[in-house]
Design brief:
- The chain is mainly alpha-helical.
- It contains 19 helices and 14 strands.
- It has helices at residues 43-59, 66-70, 78-86, 98-108, 138-154, 160-164, 192-202, 206-223, 243-254, 257-275, 308-314, 321-337, 363-382, 386-406, 451-454, 457-469, 496-508, 512-536, 564-577, and strands at 116-118, 155-158, 178-179, 280-284, 290-294, 360-361, 408-409, 414-415, 418-419, 429-430, 473-474, 477-478, 493-495, 542-544.
- Strand 4 (280-284) and strand 5 (290-294) form a beta hairpin.
- It starts with 42 loop residues before the first helix and ends in a 10-residue tail after the last helix.
Amino acid sequence: MNSNTPFFPLLFFSLLLSIPTFSESSSPSPFVSDSGPVKPTASLISFLEQLQETSLKTFGKSNFDPKLYVDLPLKFELSVTKSAFDRLPKSRNGSIYAVDLREYINIYFEGAGEDVVYASPEDFVSEPKGFLPKVKNPEVRAWALEVHSLWKNLSRKVSGQVRKQPELHTLLPLPRPFVIPGSRFREVYYWDSYWVIRGLLASKMYDTAKSIVTNLIFLIEEYGFVLNGARAYYTNRSQPPLLSAMICEIYKRTGDLELARKSLPVLIKEHKFWSSGIHKVTIQDVKARNHTLTRYYAMWNKPRPESSTLDEKLASNISDVSEKRQFYREVASTAESGWDFSSRWMRNPPDFTTLTTTSILPVELNAYILGMELDISFLAKVTGNSSISKRFTKASHTRKKAIESVFWNAEMGQWFDYWLSNRTCEGAETWKSSRQNHRVFASNFIPLWIESFHSDTVLVKKAAKSLKKSGLLQPAGIATTLTNSGQQWDYPNGWAPIQHMIIEGLAKSGLKEARLIAEDIAVRWIRTNYVTFKKTGTMHEKYNVQKCGYFGGGGEYVPQTGFGWSNGVVLALLEEFGWPEDLTINC
């Protein structure tokens, strides 16, 4: 895809399939007030949003991508660029002529992505020594080497111009090379990077993996947390916190004590970001014990700059100013979750304006933070810091109890999201069983990925049995939800990270039955990736798990290719499970 070709967001909402709904007493109440923190907006971003809006009005909806305009690097100072924009001739109705706007953009801006330049990874070799030894099928092996070679295509670094004149760019001046997801995603992204790194480790590209982590550490040092992505317009939110997991995976492969030592204070800083302030929620259980848990909560109550025109359109029927601000915060908070967007976060799906993410305690976020606590304890131990290790071991035990008390439903064998009655979260909220959301999402099984849970064989048996009966297991992998809303994090889409976490959790449990389920899902997922690759010549961001050999769709942008985490998961699964010579790879 040409990164400079805009496209129109393909939003569509189909009727829901049958889903359980909350009673009036258990669903979160709509709120119209918004009093949370808001990060300041840079002048450059405000101007690029204005350019985005003008371009939509001038060029029309066809093939319009709002993100393209906030990714444009300026050729001249902002004041010069704005003055030239203000001088553009206008028609009687105040609109700008397409030919003039097109010429203006060509004169005053570089192309989107031109400040991200190709970086040849120094640790790449066409066939690494010891690459995927369990893959015996020559056809699968040849394809795996093709996927491995994609790391070269996706490797980038920030151009010298960004460091020289950062005020002309929304791209942030990362110190080291990185791997991008692909297509319109021209910068590094937080949680994508975990599965990119898993693939790089399978490809023996340890230096590239460390380089990515170094950039994420840089973001924490600069901003206090890892941003959603390396753009100035992402400074208002994070993404699922998996940096500690990345560092532990690299350490286990390389034994790099210096990396472990350097990362420890940064990870503690990130842990504080997620376990205090606006993200912190206290729930009092039936035994009157208080549990501290975490929610997604963006520091933003305006349209997302990268999707400003789209967000404004979605909010156009909300008349109350405070309610509109809260809607924008919910949109940004959902983007922080990585599941943007899904019926999972809606009070009344498929009505997009009923997003209520800040009123939900998400199962998987708290599992990730439990994993972070275990990782910090491990890294502290191997670097000789016993006091920090003990502190975070204790924190992990506390969070495990909280997850068991608030999310786990032993009768149904799943961990369920918990819906808050009051999003202000002042003081402790009393736990009620009716506030567990019993709708089926793939996230209900993500705690299996964390050692604290996949080491419990009784629990794994219950969860594995529940997964088999859930309806999520489809011919080509695990569906994200059972609801076909037209949103991309809903049925029939399956996503690489979801497959990998559930597969790995089941496989690590040590239970034969659980590993067989894991292997079966892995085979389905690898097959659909392979067949789709052979049909289209590329790896995809998401797949339609309803049938083998089809990529996914829906959501606010057209399907993307590349694709970082899909490549990484395929390589990680082939490394773990291999592929027998006599097992067919076709659907």
